[in-house]
Amino acid sequence: IAAPQKKLLFCTAGLLSLGCALGAAAAVGSQLWVRGSILCSTGALLVNASGPELHKFIGAIQYGLFSGQRVRQCGLGGRPLHFSFFPDLLRIIPASIHVSVILFCTVLIVFALVGAGFFMFNAFGSPYETLHGPVGLYLWSFISCSCGCLIMILFSSEVKIHHLSEKIANFKEGTFTFKTHSEQFANSFWTILVCSLVHFLNALLIRFAGFEFPFSKSEESGTITGAVDLMY
């Protein structure tokens, strides 16, 4: 492939990595990871609510990695309540998983920025053979893509397996019990998915630029070296 085309591919990959870093940073600070509705089951059972009356007992909830909001509705009108995970909810949530999600988000942002810098360096500079060259580009893309996948897996398990929305809805509730009525992942969660796909696409762009996947090449060289050693 010609040098101008390689520059174009590397510039495209660098801009995509930079966009992913900015998107992930915006996602981390937002409250748009999960949206849903919560049912005040205690109040609904007390009045035997059904049909149109049931809507008076359905509130709303949305949250991110640091804070969120829930609308507590038990038949007497909605009342919005704001909350933060640190330190308010730290005792009731799976803290190790939640902190791991934040940690991997940070790693994703850092390595996306590193990858963007090295892509631009390879486009306009003279790449080295090691971490500045194609091996490094594969490495940064692989780490960023892996972090994005881990973020989605860990956060999904926290929400679905550990029933995070119900724990938040029932925080400091002594009289009423809330159940999750509906729940769906929101924009910030899908932003992380897009970031993972973009870094996978970047690995394909490196391959299209004419660079072989580095590990297959190293295996071949190791095999040849071993054969030479046996001859002597």
TrEMBL record:
Location(s), subcellular: Membrane
Keyword set, alphabetical order: Membrane, Signal, Transmembrane, Transmembrane helix
One Pfam family here: Clarin-2
Entry's family note: Belongs to the clarin family.
Main location: membrane
Spans through the membrane: 101-125, 137-155, 189-209
Signal peptide region: 1-26
GO CC field: membrane
Name of encoding gene: Clrn1
Protein name, UniProt field: CLRN1 protein
Organism: Melospiza melodia
Superkingdom of origin organism: Eukaryota
BP term (GO), one: sensory perception of sound
Topology relative to the membrane: Multi-pass membrane protein
Annotated InterPro entries: Clarin
